[in-house]
Design goal:
Layout (H helix, E strand, L loop, with lengths): L1 H24 L4 H7 L5 H11 L5 H14 L4 E2 L4 E2 H36 L4 H15 L2 H15 L19 H35 L2 H8 L4 H13 L1 H9 L1 H15 L4 H10 L3 H29 L1 H4 L2
Antiparallel strand pairs: 1-2
Helix pairs in contact: 1-14, 2-3, 5-6, 5-8, 5-14, 6-8, 7-8, 7-12, 8-10, 8-11, 8-12, 11-14, 12-13, 13-14
Length: 315
Amino acid sequence: MIFNRLRTSILSLILLVTIVFFLIHATPGGPAYSILGMHATPDAVAALNKEMGLDHPLWQQYAIWWEHLFEGNLGYSFTQHASVASLMGSYLANSIILYVLATLVAIFFSIIIGMFQGYWAERTPGVLIGAGQIIVYSIPTFFIGVMLILFFAIYVSWFPPGGIGGDQSTGALNIGSYFHHMVLPAITIALPLTAGLSRYFGHQARSEYRLDYVRTAWARGIPPLRIAVNHVLRNAIRPLVTVIGMMIPGIFVGGILTESVFNYPGLGWLLWRSALEQDYPTLSAIVLLIGVLTILGNLAADLTNSILDVRVRYE
């Protein structure tokens, strides 16, 4: 099972890199015109094609593309006048901290909400929880962000409306201010993620509550909290690992919208800015990174699930 997962992940990575390569070359006028603009002179285009190796045959460009990836050379941003790798490196840490924080918050509340939903299944509290999940999940991420800014940043002034914490005079990072600025973006990402995860976990918990071993525990007079933690939670949480891996693309999409709304300097904000400026080297590199992280996240989820559940290893 593990070997098949690894093989599938490697093939997916190769396919992803190939698709990104051909998408870059499918832009109108080729990559050179995308970088320099459609009004660039033929001499400038020819010079850039030679500099980037775009005057070689396509198969040779494809080999060079792989060679550059292995070297960590993701290209050069002509709009921001810096290497793409250095640009992404300066924004990556902010995004990782934000996404991990939002995901941990979502997992924590998803388990709590899902356990109550499973316990109250087909009763009024469970139905109300399900309706709330659908409503929150259907609200666009950017709308959630705007509403949070209007209420918590403007109306009650509890949190800043955007940006990142730091000392305005020295530019030094202030940890307290850093996380204070991160509260609203993290909630914006975590809310729809919590709605989706808790709904799935609620169905798993409901199924566990209906099994014979749980009914036997009830009949033996075991306290409800002990049944929930020692029996229902332990078995219902295993499939949640796989679902979290599958929701990684959704986390990045929500992050892109959230960072643009809150002007938060992360990869999502850089991707949005690169799209507006038609910075195709940076745009393609971020898309490639998101794809790679998605594949690796799904692989990690599958491997973790195989460790938690021995039966999965032999499927």
